[in-house]
Amino acid sequence: MDHELEDIPAEIQRDWRRSRSSFKLANLIVSEAYLTFTKALGSAGTFLLFAGFSLIGLIFIYFLVPETKGMRFEEVKKLLQKGFRPKLFAPKDTKAKLNLRNNMSRSC
To answer: Do 58 and 97 belong together in one domain?
Structure first.
């Protein structure tokens, strides 16, 4: 058992282990592909390719992942359980409400 997880509830431990496994798989893919890409594209091309993947990931996160700053764990859990819909895909009337809320909070 992992010593750093002893005091953490089992539900969170399970999620943490899953994410750790995904991270290890991603590292394996990158490390296996690196030499192949370096031979085909050269060092600069390989780093540009990985930078492009990182940029795509950043854009994905910016537009599709909800903002959870300042929220408690329970609030985040509720948000994700009820089904989060990114602003990008929200109905037009919802976008108008979000803009109204943002404008009101800025003026306060």
So the answer is: no
